[in-house]
C-alpha cells in the first residue's frame, strides 16, 4: 500500500470517528465517506474515488454539480456583498428572480413571489397564506406524500418511520386524502376504472372526513417524490383541481422535487394542464445553494400584512444569484428537452433490467423523474425492502450514488443531473446491474 493511499484511509477513518462523536445518530448517511469535489454528474471522495451521481443530492442538482455559471454567479455576488437581509436593505436580484419565476409558473393570473430558504419553509408559508386568505383552517395533503420535517410539514407528511415516529403531538386540522397508486390497483380493475374510483374516493373523503367549507388548501405533489415516484393520472389531478375550484379551496402544488426541468417542463403541473393557486419551489432552483419560494395569485400573497412574512436569510443574495444562473442554464442548454430524452433512455434501460430480473415489479416515470419498484414476487407484488437496501449498498461500493424511496422502502429512484453525459449514464446503469445481480446472489 502506498503512503498516500494509507494516509487517505487514515484521514477517512479520522473523519468518520469525528462524525460519530459530534453528529446526532438521527442524521443518516447513505455512504460512509466524505466528498472532496464534484463536477457535473461526478462526485469524488476524500480517498480519490469517483462516484457517478444518480441521486443528485436528493434532486437538487438538475444542472449538475458546480456548474461554472452557478459558481461564477455566486462568486461575483460574494465579492459585492453576502447578505443585507431583504427586510433591512433590498437588492435587485430578489426582484429579478421573483419576476422570472412568476413569468415561468403556470397561470394567466397576476402573480407575486415570496422567497425563503428551504422547501419546508416554502410549504409552511404557503399554508399560512392559504389560511390567511380563506379564513379557513383545514389543510388536506395525501397518503404517501412528503412535504418536510418541520412541525407543520411533518404533520402533512405520511410516512411515520423515520419521519414522524415519537415526534408528536402534531399540528391540528391536517387531513390525509387517498392518492392513486396505479401499480397497486385492485386486481381485475382497469386503469380508467381505477382512476375514476380514486377520484371518487377523494370526493367521498372530502365529504365525510372534513367539510370542504372548512378547508383552506389541498397540497399535492404532482409526482410523489419520497412516496415512491408515483405518477398520478391526468384525470385524477384535474378532478382534484376542479373540486377545489368548486368549493373555494386553494390548490397548492408542491413542486420542490419536480421543478426546474426534472420532468421535462419547468414545473410538473404543466403536464397536467392545471394552474395552481400557489406553487412551492426549492431544491434544484439553487443548484445546491439554499433558496425556496412560493409563487402564486397576487391577491393570496398580498393578504398577509406587513411583517407577517419573511425571515432573516429568506431569499438570500447568494441563493438568488445561484437561482438566476440556474434559470439561464435551463434555457440556454435546453434542459427541459434534454430531460424528456434522458427520461426515455432511463425508462428503456429499466425495461431491459425488468426483462432480466424478476424482482423488478414495476417501472415508471415522468420526464427524467424515474423509478423501479423491487418486489419479492411479481404476482403478489410483495415489497422487498431488504433487497432494495442491498442494491443501494452494493451500488455505492462500486461507485454509484443511489437512493431508495417509497412507502415500503422498496423503490429505486433516479435523480441524476440532467446534464449527465451518455457515457456516464451507461456506466452508471452497468454498475447498477452489477449491484443488482450481486445483491440477489447474496440475499
From TrEMBL:
The keyword Transferase applies. This is (S)-3-amino-2-methylpropionate transaminase. Its cofactor is pyridoxal 5'-phosphate. It comes from Halalkalibacterium halodurans (strain ATCC BAA-125 / DSM 18197 / FERM 7344 / JCM 9153 / C-125). It catalyses: (S)-3-amino-2-methylpropanoate + 2-oxoglutarate = 2-methyl-3-oxopropanoate + L-glutamate; 4-aminobutanoate + 2-oxoglutarate = succinate semialdehyde + L-glutamate. Keywords: Aminotransferase, Pyridoxal phosphate, Transferase. GO terms for molecular function: (S)-3-amino-2-methylpropionate transaminase activity; 4-aminobutyrate:2-oxoglutarate transaminase activity; identical protein binding; pyridoxal phosphate binding. The keyword Transferase applies. It holds the Pfam family Aminotran_3. Its EC number is 2.6.1.19, 2.6.1.22. Pathway: Amino-acid degradation; 4-aminobutanoate degradation. PROSITE patterns: AA_TRANSFER_CLASS_3. Belongs to the class-III pyridoxal-phosphate-dependent aminotransferase family.
